From TrEMBL:
It comes from Devosia crocina. This is Phage shock protein A. Pfam families: PspA_IM30 (PF04012). Residues 117-151 form a coiled coil. Keywords: Coiled coil.
């Protein structure tokens, strides 16, 4: 296949795919229209059948009338023969022949119309059954389509809810972390404040001469020069050893 042939084939394939996509998208509308077309054809078939049945009745009535005429003319011809009127019998015989010809033609027509009538009647009955079945299937398809749309909408809504819930959970986690960080800063500040308060208290104790252990050089020199000092290097607050 040439390059142009392949391109043309690809274009036709794309057109067919597009047509099928459009047909699938309008499937319910197409089905409804096809059913309406079938019902219109069925109405036309019923009208044709009614015409055939009317023709059959006309032919059957004509056959009955001709048979009655034949029987009457036959009786009259026999009476004419019995009366010696062969001329009348000859005329009646000619008319009987004409009637019998008409009977043959009408019977042949009826033999053709009756099978056609039965055939059309069966076709109409089959078509009616198929249309009824098709309507039932279309209703089921419509119900399933509505159910699928509802389920799809519910799934989409559920997906949106899950997304929003996920965002809410993320927001809650961020809030919790921010609260934990804030609580940590508050606790750290409290600890720092406690340390600062403790240092200030120690300073105040030293200034009051309570619990202090630091000695100046003058204090140590005075202790060394004191004759009563047994352990001149002992620190204030320590007991002298015996």
């Amino acid at each position: 296949m040439s390059a142009w042939g392949k391109i043309f084939t690809a274009i036709r394939g794309g057109a067919n795919e597009a047509a099928e996509a459009i047909a699938d998208g309008q499937s319910m509308r197409i089905l409804d229209q096809e059913i309406r077309d079938a019902e219109q054809s069925l109405r036309q078939a019923r009208s044709d059948l009614a015409g055939i049945m009317a023709s059959n009745k006309t032919v059957m009535r004509r056959i009955e009338e001709n048979r009655a005429k034949e029987a009457k003319d036959t009786d009259s011809a026999r009476a004419a023969i019995a009366a010696g009127r062969t001329d009348l019998a000859q005329g009646l015989a000619q008319r009987i022949a004409t009637i019998r010809g008409e009977l043959q033609r009408d019977q042949a027509e009826l033999d053709q119309l009756l099978p056609r009538q039965q055939q059309m009647l069966r076709a109409i009955q089959d078509t009616e059954a198929r249309i009824t079945q098709m309507k039932r299937e279309v209703e089921n398809v419509k119900a399933n389509e509505a159910l699928l749309k509802a389920q799809s909408a519910l799934a989409h809504s559920q997906s949106g809810i899950n997304t929003r819930l996920g965002s809410a959970v993320d927001s809650l986690e961020r809030i919790k972390k921010r609260q934990e960080a804030t609580a940590g800063r508050i606790a750290a500040g409290a600890e720092l404040a406690a340390l600062e308060n403790g240092n200030d208290l120690d300073r105040q104790l030293l200034e009051a001469g309570i619990g202090g252990s630091n000695q100046s050089a003058d204090d140590i020199l005075a202790q060394l020069m004191s004759p009563s000092s047994v352990d001149p290097l002992s620190l204030p607050g320590q007991k002298k050893s015996d």
